[in-house]
Design a protein that fits this description.
The complex is a heterotrimer of chains A (264), B (261) and C (326).
Chain A: H1 2-43, E1 49-50, E2 53-54, H2 55-72, H3 76-86, H4 96-108, H5 113-128, H6 139-165, H7 173-187, H8 199-207, H9 215-221, H10 227-262
Antiparallel strand pairs in A: 1-2
Helix pairs in contact in A: 1-2, 1-5, 2-5, 2-9, 3-6, 6-9, 6-10
Chain B: H1 2-21, H2 23-47, E1 53-54, E2 57-58, H3 59-85, H4 87-93, H5 95-100, H6 106-111, H7 118-136, H8 142-169, H9 180-190, H10 200-205, H11 212-224, H12 229-260
Antiparallel strand pairs in B: 1-2
Chain C: E1 4-16, H1 22-27, E2 34-47, E3 52-56, H2 63-70, E4 78-83, H3 93-96, E5 99-103, H4 115-125, H5 130-144, H6 159-171, E6 177-181, H7 189-206, E7 209-214, H8 217-223, E8 226-231, E9 234-240, H9 241-248, E10 251-258, H10 264-268, E11 273-277, E12 280-286, H11 290-300, E13 303-309, H12 313-322
Parallel strand pairs in C: 3-7, 3-8, 5-6, 6-7
Antiparallel strand pairs in C: 1-2, 1-4, 8-9, 10-12, 10-13, 11-12
Helix pairs in contact in C: 4-6, 5-6
The chains are: A mainly alpha (264), B mainly alpha (261), C alpha/beta (326).
InterPro entries (chain B): ABC-2_transporter-like
Protein name (chain B): ABC transporter permease
Pfam family, one (chain B): ABC2_membrane_6
Chain lengths: 264, 261, 326
């Protein structure tokens, strides 16, 4: 009887708060985007280009990049760490692929309200700045762009999975998760275009998987990368996907063994 | 009262023992904090390689702002954050009942139980950052800083405490509303930037309902010599109001919890 | 003056009816049907100083709710109660310093620290003087035989040891009233017994008024002279345990073993048969007829052995629970 009340409020509250959380982060993100746009507009006063970007290209960079980031992100880590702590993982312990697939399908099928809010608000901002946006219509570039974004989604997914798996060993997953998120944002060019960095750092960033969730696809869209460079980028993505996959298998085996043994 | 100071001493000691037990988490926490601080510092450097100022704030100014923001954030995280975060679970697990049955103020007990010692070291880094920013840029005269800065920092701290408590008191109303901290975290993050950039309306909002300007910008402004006496007097008023509201909401929630639970 | 006075105490919980389905969910945005469940219905009782009273009842009977109201954790919907002259839900500090509540399987101690650290916190919360603290801890630890584990992390202790520590933590401030909610639940048989012995001894020595809830008959049998049976929020019985047995037990149980098989139908002519295998039968016989029936069976059937027993108290209680209004 009282159970009903509890269940109802729990469901509402969880959904509501989960959305509020994401909306809160999205709000923060929107402010950051607006701040960056205002910033760049101010920086461009009296100049035509900065580091080879026109103001339109810079604005496009920020907006398209964020769009990519919205599409490729996931909230898997939270979900996974909870499942591990709650012990809901027991069924999946035997086959790691099964859990991976399960979670992947869940994530893909999740056209959730927060995602839509983020997407719509991003498109909204893009419409506001429509006159400043650079539009390219090269089909080939676009196709590569799509492929890269799809791979980026997978990479982010695997990385979140690995971070989530650390819950097998430690309780303190929040700190790691947040730090990786901020590092990722930084290394992917989320705060500013990587072209502003010295050449060496750009090379390092391109070797890491993060850049492909923001910087690289957007550069491709802006046609600041050649098709060949785009293909090379996709190649590096594939290597990372394979590497991360292997890591997952390894970590999973170790983790579930510990899980069974201790019986969290 | 002296009794609460004694209790505080015990609780701090317990947190310290815990920190020693989980040394890995201790070091990791320090590492993370330094990484974040470093990242934002680099961002500021890079942004300012292309401009002299943003909305009237120079590179040095922004460093001071970052330092102040981080200082307050670490102060909160080092003291009441982890304690209050537990509230929704305490209610859901029934442990709240025991806390309420004790002859101590429950809000105090909940908030003071989890100090994070790792933040203490990071605070030193924050102070260092502030000092650096003040050295390479403007700095207000010492006597104004000594009068104004503490008042504003304490006000900001109290507002943070109140808001965090307000949000987590929802744990009495909704079961396991643990994500609520992210709400605060997301909004707080904006205050790293000078909110002047966002226009009048946002500025107004950030002076009242979501007092981020009061919490973070005012202390920074005090260090830079850019604050009016009115603003210095305004901050404690906001702090008092938020504290009163948070306390009232908590007590109201407890009453309701005891009636309905 | 009674230590605990309860008059017409009632606790109702509200809840909203939720029907499944989309239409119902949408309707529920506008109008929700409020329903009530009465956890405690109009109960009244008093307890004198030094009594050890057992609250017995099935799960969900209202025992824990009653204890929570008496410790001020919950507000009642209606009715009055006074413990040590205070109204519990006013949560006066003066009152809170004079009682303690322990709930079985619920931890008040810090999980990752030695019990002693939790004791020190309680010492400060309840403002127990140093000398008294040391004496109490030493004394209780001795009594409970856990002197050597006070410096071990609580999570490394067994449930029995943990419960003992919980008891010490609760008794540090020498409470005049002790509420124990299912203190033996989940413990192994030996620990249960030790716990009961301790509670009994403590009550005798310190004259602390103890209210104990349990759904284990053993607890009540061992500890309580007086028992309050509560079921579906109502008090079904309040009085001496011995009187309970006298009141509700109107029959005895006769167990007969035969040397040659006997038909159930034949036996049933005499009295209700509880169990019947070819060579053994268990019969319920009203008190007045015991001698007659026993004699009849001995003469009529090839009896190997015959036993006349009291009805187990558990069955008595169960009967009280299962009959609606007694």
């Amino acid at each position: 009887m009282r159970k009903y009340w509890t269940i109802i409020t729990t469901m509402w509250a969880r959904a509501l708060i989960h959305r509020f959380t994401i909306v809160a982060y999205r709000t923060g993100e929107l402010f950051e985007i607006v701040f960056l746009l205002i910033l760049w507009t101010a920086l461009f006063k009296g100049r035509d280009t900065i580091s080879g970007y026109t103001i339109q290209e810079m604005i496009t960079y920020v907006l398209v990049g964020n769009l990519v980031s919205i599409v490729t992100r996931n909230f898997l880590t939270d979900f996974m760490t909870k499942e591990i702590k709650d012990g809901a993982l027991s069924i999946f312990v035997v086959k790691p692929i099964t859990y991976l697939r399960y979670v992947l399908v869940r994530e893909l099928g999740r056209v959730s309200l927060p995602f839509l809010i983020s997407l719509v608000s991003q498109i909204g901002i893009m419409l506001i700045f429509a006159r400043q946006l650079v539009i390219h219509t090269s089909f080939v570039h676009f196709a590569l762009f799509i492929v890269m974004v799809a791979f980026a989604f997978l990479i982010e997914f695997f990385i979140s999975f690995l971070i989530g798996a650390t819950a097998f060993w430690t309780d303190e997953t929040d700190g790691l998760s947040q730090t990786i998120y901020r590092l990722k944002r930084f290394l992917s060019g989320g705060y500013f275009t990587l072209s502003l960095l010295p050449a060496l750092y750009i090379q390092i960033s391109l070797a890491l998987p993060f850049a492909y969730s923001f910087y690289v696809p957007t550069q491709l869209y802006l046609q600041k990368l050649t098709l060949w460079q785009g293909l090379k980028g996709i190649g590096i993505q594939i290597i990372w996907i394979a590497l991360l996959y292997l890591c997952i298998k390894l970590v999973w085996r170790r983790g579930t063994r510990r899980y069974e043994g201790v019986g969290i | 009262m002296r009794r609460y100071l004694k209790l505080l001493k015990i609780l701090v000691r317990v947190s310290f023992i815990r920190a020693l037990m989980f040394r890995a988490a201790f070091y990791m926490d320090i590492a993370y904090s330094f990484i974040w601080l470093g990242l934002f510092f680099i961002i500021i450097q890079i942004l300012f390689s292309h401009t002299e100022e943003i909305a009237g704030w120079s590179r040095a100014n922004l460093i001071v702002l970052l330092g102040v923001w981080s200082f307050l954030d670490d102060l909160g995280a080092g003291t009441f954050w982890d304690g209050i975060k537990r509230l929704p679970d305490l209610v859901a697990d029934g442990a709240m009942d025991f806390i309420l049955a004790r002859p101590v103020d429950s809000q105090f007990l909940i908030a003071a139980e989890r100090f994070r010692f790792s933040r203490v070291l990071v605070i030193l880094a924050d102070v260092g950052l502030i000092a650096y920013g003040l050295t390479i840029g403007e700095m207000a005269p010492w006597h104004t800083i000594i009068l104004r800065f503490p008042v504003l920092v304490v006000s900001g701290y109290i507002i943070a405490l109140s808001v965090v408590y307000l949000l987590h008191t929802l744990g009495f109303w909704f079961l396991r509303i643990n994500n609520v901290w992210a709400l605060y975290d997301g909004l707080e993050g904006i205050a790293k930037y000078p909110l002047d950039v966002f226009g009048r309306h946002i500025k107004l909002l950030s002076l009242t309902i979501v007092p981020l300007t009061v919490m973070f910008m005012f202390p920074a402004q005090a260090l830079l010599g850019r604050i009016t006496t009115l603003e210095v007097l305004y901050a404690p008023v906001v702090a008092a109001i938020f504290f009163a509201v948070a306390r009232w909401f908590y007590q109201y929630s407890v009453r309701r919890y005891s009636s309905v639970a | 003056m009674p230590i605990i006075e309860v008059k017409n105490l009632t606790k109702k919980y509200e809840y909203y009816k939720k029907a499944p389905g989309l239409l119902a969910s949408m309707k529920s945005l506008f109008h929700r049907e409020k329903l009530y469940t009465e956890a405690v219905k109009n109960i009244s009782f008093t307890v004198e100083e030094g009594e050890l009273v057992g609250f017995l009842g099935p799960n969900g009977a209202g025992k824990t709710t009653t204890l929570k109201m008496l410790s001020g954790i919950l507000y009642p919907t209606s009715g009055e109660a006074k413990v040590l002259g205070h109204v519990p839900w006013k949560r006066e500090k003066k009152y809170q310093k004079q009682f303690a509540i322990v709930m079985g399987q619920k931890n008040q101690l810090w999980w990752d620290l030695p019990a002693m650290d939790s004791f020190i916190l309680n010492k400060e919360i309840y403002e127990v003087p140093d000398a008294q603290f040391k004496k109490t801890v030493d004394g209780l630890a001795e009594l409970l035989e856990i002197k050597d584990i006070l410096d071990v992390q609580v999570r490394k202790l067994s449930l029995g040891q943990r419960m003992k520590c919980e008891l010490i933590a609760a008794l540090l401030h020498q409470p005049k009233v002790l509420f124990l909610d299912e203190p033996t639940i989940g413990l192994d048989v030996v620990s249960q017994q030790k716990m009961r012995e301790f509670i009994k001894t403590y009550n005798e020595q310190k004259k602390t008024t103890i209210l104990l809830t349990s759904h284990y008959m053993e607890d009540v049998k061992a500890l309580c002279k007086r028992v309050i049976i509560i079921d579906h929020g109502e008090i079904r019985y309040d009085g001496a345990l011995s009187a309970l047995i006298d009141k509700y037990v109107d029959h005895k149980v006769i167990t007969v073993t035969f040397t040659k098989p006997v038909e159930r139908v034949d036996l049933e002519k005499f009295c209700p048969v509880m169990e019947c295998t070819p060579l053994r039968a268990v019969l319920n016989v009203p008190n007045e007829e015991v001698k007659k029936v026993a004699a009849k069976i001995l003469t009529t059937y090839p009896v190997d052995d015959i036993l006349i027993d009291e009805v187990p108290v558990e069955d008595v209680i169960r009967r009280i629970f299962t009959t609606g209004k007694s």
